[in-house]
């Protein structure tokens, strides 16, 4: 049984109520419950962390190494476009990860169209709404099966 870590960055605790026309109506708790069940159905465990603080996400990434987490799924929110520190932490632990964005970042403001994480991610799911999390988890599960 492998552990998969789901990380969500700033403002994602507001899913379901924050700009639902962009981010959907499903809450983060609902998404986490669905993903935990899917991971369990495949014989794995999913843990989840959401923080509005960059350092807390970095701490969770670093702790993942000592917990022997096998894959990370991360929606860094706005930190996607600003955080070299998140990128460095993910590279430092050497755990394969998938980047998720609910909205199509390439169909939004110019400053949202750059990801510091994308070039080093195993995969990226963009613009699929909450389904993107499930697709990223399925990709992680497939990688674990190999």
In short:
By secondary structure, this protein is of the alpha/beta class.
Question: What structural keywords apply?
Answer:
5 strands; alpha/beta; Rossmann fold; 146 residues
Helix percent band: 25-40%
Strand content: 15-25%
User: What Rg is obtained from the alpha carbons, in whole angstroms?
Assistant: 14 Å
Q: Assign an overall shape.
A: globular
Number of strands: 5
Plain-language structure description:
With 146 residues, the chain is of the alpha/beta class. The chain contains 5 helices and 5 strands, in the order βααβαβαββα. Helices cover 38% and strands 18% of the residues. It has one domain (3-145): Rossmann fold, CATH 3.40.50. Strands 2-1-3-4-5 form a 5-stranded parallel beta sheet, sandwiched between helices.
What's the structural blueprint in terms of helices and strands?
Blueprint: E1 3-8, H1 20-23, H2 28-41, E2 45-50, H3 54-66, E3 71-75, H4 84-93, E4 97-101, E5 123-126, H5 131-145
Parallel strand pairs: 1-2, 1-3, 3-4, 4-5
Helix pairs in contact: 2-5, 3-4
